[in-house]
Amino acid sequence: MHATVGDEIHVHGRTVGAGGQRGEIIEVRGANGSPPYLVRFTDGHEGLVVPGPDCEVEAAGAKK
């Protein structure tokens, strides 16, 4: 996985009924855009994320 500051990360719920989370990548700590990423989630908290198969990164300014 590769990301840059400003990209958005989507963490999908792992169980039925669990909501997903979205956040903005505010710092890339790995080499050449690789994880871990410091993320500011929409509820305001920040956390260090090492994305798994339940995550996807959307480039800044991209629309789905």
UniProtKB/TrEMBL annotation:
- Any matching Pfam family: DUF1918
Task: Enumerate the InterPro entries for this protein.
Answer: DUF1918
Boundaries of each DUF1918 domain copy? 1-57
Put simply, this protein is called DUF1918 domain-containing protein
